[in-house]
Automatic annotation (TrEMBL):
EC number of the protein: 1.13.11.8
MF term (GO), any: ferrous iron binding
Pfam short name (any one): LigB
Biological classification of the source: Bacteria, Pseudomonadati, Pseudomonadota, Betaproteobacteria, Burkholderiales
The keyword Oxidoreductase is annotated on this UniProt entry: yes
NCBIfam families: PRK13364.1, PRK13365.1
Gene3D superfamilies to which the protein is assigned, alphabetical: LigB-like
The protein, known as: Protocatechuate 4,5-dioxygenase beta chain
Keywords per UniProt: Dioxygenase, Oxidoreductase
InterPro entries: Xdiol_dOase_suB
Domain Extradiol ring-cleavage dioxygenase class III enzyme subunit B: 8-273
Length: 283
């Protein structure tokens, strides 16, 4: 059976793609942000995942407002990145793990999640940037050392699924990974959040104390966040802060396994976003 090695939750900001393209890792603005990924990369070098289930949100590249699935699971053999309008060169395509995709699709549907299955899908900065931050050697080589299964949660067109539902979806992902008849090592990545608001009267809104409380809660009290409605979460974290739902789903995927925090980092701001990084492993 497959082995679930843990989770890495990270924020995504398109400007990271520009910083990587222009090699700004040592620039004073970027250095604290990029340095934090060193510990996650060391952990990955030790844990050597083969497959990544990446819980992320699309921002209009793959789904637009005319068609917006609440949960969508990729079942493609390749996921290309494309220009999202930021002028950043697209990163290497990711290889899909089709076998795990279909096992996840079957498990989620059996667990009564009404998902959209995507046998073709583009992926945006929410997938390409975590890969580039965690496997810079793959960025250079033009090929990532892992296969992926993208699991997309709608956080761009209300209504969104609740934190409690995303947590339960994560629990179903764990059942899928642990019952996958394969001996590969699987990592769960969450990509999104933390607090940020890109437009409107509260543009630039950041809530450091709430973000930090949320990150701490994920270690020992992972259902803490489910006390909040999505309206409350938008109020507390900004219209795009609701992307923290990815972190909730990834934590759900480790539920029932006592976890240990291997690494945590919080840095404000990168672009308009409070950025967090959290590496959890089975205790
Ligand atoms: C920014 C953050 C995001 O999550 C995103 O998808 C786009 C932009 C930002 O802070 O610039
Ligand atoms: Fe985003």
């Amino acid at each position: 059976m497959a082995h679930l090695i843990g989770s890495i939750s990270t924020s995504h900001v398109p400007a990271i793609g520009g910083a990587l393209a222009h090699q700004k890792q040592q620039d004073p603005y970027w250095k604290p942000f990029f340095d934090a990924y060193g510990k996650a990369r060391e952990w990955l070098a030790r844990e050597r995942p083969d497959v990544v289930v990446i819980v992320h949100n699309d921002h209009g590249l793959n789904f637009f407002l005319d068609k917006m699935p609440t949960f969508a699971v990729g079942a493609a053999d390749v996921y290309r990145n494309a220009d999202e309008g930021w002028g950043i060169p697209p990163l290497a395509a990711a290889r899909g793990c089709v076998d795990l995709s279909w096992h996840i699709v079957e498990t989620l549907v059996a667990d009564e999640f009404d998902i959209t299955t995507c046998q073709e899908a583009l992926v945006d900065h929410s997938v390409s940037l975590p890969l580039a931050l965690l496997w810079p050697e793959g960025k250079e080589a033009g090929e990532w050392p892992v296969e992926i299964v993208p699991v997309c949660i709608n956080t761009v067109l209300a209504p969104y699924p609740s934190a409690a539902r995303c947590y339960r979806m994560g629990q179903s992902l764990r059942r899928a990974i642990e019952s996958w008849d394969d001996d590969r090592r699987v990592l769960v990545i969450a990509s999104g959040g933390l607090s940020h608001q890109l437009d409107g009267e509260r543009a630039g809104f950041i809530n450091k104390s709430f973000d930090q409380q949320f990150m701490e809660s994920l270690v020992d009290d992972p259902k803490w966040i489910t006390r909040y409605s999505n309206e409350e979460l938008v109020e507390l974290t900004g219209t795009q802060g609701i992307e923290l739902l990815m972190w909730v789903a990834a934590r759900g995927a480790l539920d029932d396994i006592p976890v240990k925090q291997h690494h945590a980092h919080y840095h404000v701001p990168i672009s308009n976003t409070a950025t967090g990084l959290l590496v959890l492993e089975p205790a």
